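FAQ: What does a multi-protein file look like?

Like this. Sequence, then tokens, then the next protein.
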Amino acid sequence: MRSEYFPKEFKKVKHITFDGEMNKSEDVETWLLGMKKLFKLHNYSENMKAKIATFSIKRKADIWWEDVNNVKGIREEELIWDDFERLLKKKCPS
């Protein structure tokens, strides 16, 4: 995904990333809460929230996402935040 697809204000905000190295449920929850705080600042569509989330995952989490994408045949242009959050919580249950 190329960065020109993201709103200009997103590029200015220092956002948190999730690398998947920490597999504790509180680490996932902490990242999700941070993302929700970011989303409160802006009026992003549910699809843009999901795109920002997938852009913000790194390393093991990125590999997990690619696997989920391939297995489930997810179309990122149709993915919404709630679906992404549900999939991540399923991967790292609390």
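And here is the next protein:
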Amino acid sequence: MRPIKAELGVAPELGSCHTAVVEGYVIEGHVPADAIARLLEERPNIVGLAVPGMPVGSPGMEGPNPQPYEILAFDAEGNVSVFDRR
């Protein structure tokens, strides 16, 4: 998967266990569906969204003691910003 992630512009520090492309945007990791819906509605000039790692409390990682996590936006130049916090 590393070559695919690299080809899609996912830096190693943004990596997680799942990678998808949705309407031209890369979705890396356990990104909540409502964040993807917002991405598709707003259509920012970015490569995609990432939730690095597998934080407890993110979709598919439910469990006791959820931890806060950030949904990160990343662009083709390697810039990363916070898209949302949970």
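Q: Is there any per-entry metadata?
A: Some entries carry free-text notes. For the entry above: The CA atoms of residues 9 and 77 lie 9 Å apart.
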